[in-house]
Design brief:
With 198 residues, the chain is of the alpha/beta class. The chain is built from 5 helices and 9 strands, in the order βββαβαββββαβαα. A hairpin with a 4-residue loop joins strand 7 and strand 8.
Length: 198
């Protein structure tokens, strides 16, 4: 089983190939606002580096947000297109959940800075089941910390791609057309337009 991992949810573009649970290659580059250039290039490069053809890939695991509106849209669109053309399975997982996989504890609190004092927040139990994934502020984080005493993880913490692929084994395969970005809030441009029209 060869899995193609795609994450463009934040400033990094991360593309990895995993075979039978072990990473073959991982290409990662910080390229704000250039996700569209690097994502397809890295996929081509990583396949060539491992002497593989696109048809050798058995499944795609894509991070579908939350995070950068443009980055998420690009990564999800490319993943959907590849899965559809190659007629292979596609699985989705959030940028909040991927950061807690592999940790041990009773509860996990994953946060990503969403600017202006707000955060993307994910709370999970010891089996990594989602209790909540939401857009909120620091007061909400403090509330969840006090109630659950969770292991804390932020966007500064790197994630374990092998753990992600291992977890994804139990995720349902989705029709490529049904895979959608998880924004948890409106993009800033749309928020501004809504405020003008209200």
């Amino acid at each position: 089983m060869i899995s193609l991992f795609i994450d463009t949810s934040l400033s990094d573009v991360s593309i990895a190939l995993v075979k039978e649970g072990k990473i073959l290659s991982n290409i990662k580059n910080t390229s704000p606002k250039e996700h569209s250039i690097y994502t397809t290039k890295f996929i081509e490069d990583i396949l060539k580096e491992n002497n593989l053809e696109p048809n050798d890939v058995n499944e795609i695991v894509v991070v579908n947000g939350p995070g950068s509106f443009t980055g998420i849209r690009i990564g999800v669109t490319i993943a959907k297109m590849c899965a559809y053309l190659l007629k292979i399975n596609i699985k989705e997982i959030t940028s909040l959940k991927i950061r807690v996989l592999g940790f041990t504890g009773d509860y996990f609190l994953s946060t990503i800075d969403a600017k202006h004092g707000n955060y993307y927040i994910g709370l999970y139990d010891k089996e990594y089941n989602t209790i909540t994934e939401e857009f909120n502020n620091i007061d909400r984080i403090d509330e969840l910390k006090e109630k659950y005493n969770p292991v804390l993880v932020t966007e500064a913490d790197d994630y374990d791609i092998e753990e992600i692929i291992k977890y994804a084994k139990n995720l349902p395969s989705i029709n490529p057309h049904a895979v959608n970005p998880v924004y948890l809030k409106l993009p800033e441009a749309m928020e501004k337009n809504d405020k003008r029209s209200s």
